[in-house]
User: What shape does this take?
Amino acid sequence: MRVYHTPELLPHPSVVTFGNFDGVHLGHLALLSTLSSVGKSAALHRVVITFDPHPFCFLNCKKDFLITDQCTKIALLSPYADSLYFIKFDDELRKLSPEDFLQFLSSFLNFKCLVNAENCRFGRFSSGSITEIEKYQELLSYKAVIIKPEVNASGSRYSSTLVRAGIKNGDVLSVSQLLGRYHSIRGIIRRDRGLASTIGFPTINIAIPEEIIKPKLGVYVVDISIEGTRYGGIANIGKRPTTSDSGEVILEAHIFHFSDNVYGKEATVYLKAFLREEKLFPSLEELKEQILADIRAALSLNF
Assistant: This one.
């Protein structure tokens, strides 16, 4: 898949979809599967359009919001698309009417088919819907393919809003059911004070990027992927009140049976279960006892 960060001309006849795709949840995957199927059956180049920054972040100067960072989003979208465009979301783009937005897409894409869901919204003040997508088919010479939004077993529609709520509540199970995978946080392993090693539990430390949504603070059962190898462990996501007064939210993970030097390497941490909330301990000895209890609890879950 080729990734574009500007609206470069793509002359190939194509099938296109557009959206924020934050989290790339199961509802998104249904839409992307339709895009891919149409593209393969009609021999059309498969194109996904998304926006950077996320429109909500741009309009509200919002941080602590995104489910997926850009690299993770690219990896999740790549099986379904031949080309991925990150279109800059700014005042100029947000003021486009639905018709002007579709005209904008046609200025650099030779799309013959446009795929989207019944509940899609686009254009100025989110005034565009499938009505406009169907209305401009003849003018812009494309065919509209509209799918129904996917719903889960309880009848609720998959949405990034539900995913964010689950992450904030520490509801790892519901999040994994919405995503079809474990929620993950990616970052560079940084050198810290090494205090955890002095009590027998060396950790890797990752600063969560400011734009990424912060999970409920506490201790999680996790998997940690480093250079393609996946390890089991536990992680504390929080401010480490027993050992630090900085107030910074850090992901601090203890990898079972692991002692390699991995400073500066990239790690992806998958949240598999929420064990307990973060708390202040009167002493390092009591913290050590609790970590041992957390490890026993994690291992008992048999993930």
About this structure: The CA atoms of residues 39 and 155 lie 29 Å apart. The longest strand covers residues 266-277.
